[in-house]
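Researcher: I'd like a structural prediction for the single chain below. Treat it as a standalone chain; there are no partners to consider.
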Amino acid sequence: MKIDLHCHSSFSDGIFTPQQLLEIAEKEKLTIFSITDHDSIKGTAIANRESVNYSFSYLSGIEISARYKQEKIEILGYNFNTDNSAFKQSLVKLQNARRERIYKILVKLQEIGLDLTYDDVIKEVGDASSPGRPHFARAMKTKRYVNSVKEAFNEYLAEGRPAYVPRLTIEPKEAIKLIHNANGIAVLPHPLFMEKRDLKKMEESLDLLISWGMKGIEVYYNYENAFSNFSAKKIQEVTKFLSEYCKQNDLLVTGGSDFHGEKGTLGGVYVPKEYISQIQSFFNL
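Model: Treating it as a single chain, here is the predicted structure.
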């Protein structure tokens, strides 16, 4: 049994269309699958409709941009109503802010001598409703300013680098409320990015998120392919801590690859069978 509850389609910053991701999920023999585009539900709505033609169970998904006290704490949402008009309208502001950020990043890149244009980036954005830094990274690679997406982030686009521009976000509390109001559940993705070393601080943050209505944690995540420098020992330590925390607080344990299409494998993150069974039971799949 394999699952993947965290990946991105061409409607945000992934390479593959929702239809292509469904085909890949079938080929990889996934049991449960979800597309979690940044601040957009267009891709997951398509996949939700078309998933009836495949053998796996599909959950509608999203990854909402959020920050709390300057700390990036994104929120995953699952099994919500993709036709909920209030939910869709609430995402428009975040999508518009992403498009406005394109111009701000371009100015910074041009100031340091990179001749990248709006059209260069838009070619990479395509139909995406939520353009992001990976689109810049791909455009930079196309124009041979960098050799890889990773290099573009490390040299120019990551936080603290010369072309970084923060984007408009909401607080995790609001993101969780939006998901719940659309009859979905909220899950914390890649928690090691939230508190990189201090497990005590991580626990305090998790307690706060639970008080706001969080129902699960992405305990199993593809840190190795996410431009992170975490050691295998640290990942194992945090995975053990989070598994125990979820058990103590009756939280759902999930896992995902954060697959964008350029590297890694859909369904490539191991999630123990017992947790897959719990997910099936929780969502009545």
